[in-house]
Design brief:
By secondary structure, this protein is mainly alpha-helical. Helices cover 67% and strands 0% of the residues.
């Protein structure tokens, strides 16, 4: 794992669509593999929800800083610009 990663909402969306592709490609007759993949999808869902909450909080912080600190330059995190 590299020290610096391209952690963007776009990349996160890529993971979601990859998981959807994996689920779509699953052989439904293999119940055990299907259970494992469903558990994986649920884990991805939880991580995505948490990351979206972080992004929303960050975006609200940027919005409030822009509103109340208009004389200062407001930095928008790169992760929100994808």
């Amino acid at each position: 794992m590299s020290a610096q990663r391209d952690n963007t909402l776009g990349r996160l969306g890529g993971y979601v669509f990859s998981e959807l592709d994996r689920l779509d490609a699953m052989e439904t007759s293999d119940a055990d593999a299907l259970k494992v993949e469903i558990a994986r999808a649920k884990a991805v869902e939880k991580l995505v929800k948490a990351q979206v909450e972080v992004a929303n909080t960050t975006l609200e912080t940027v919005r409030l800083r822009a509103e109340f600190m208009a004389s200062e330059k407001v930095h928008v995190p790169r992760e929100l610009l994808s």
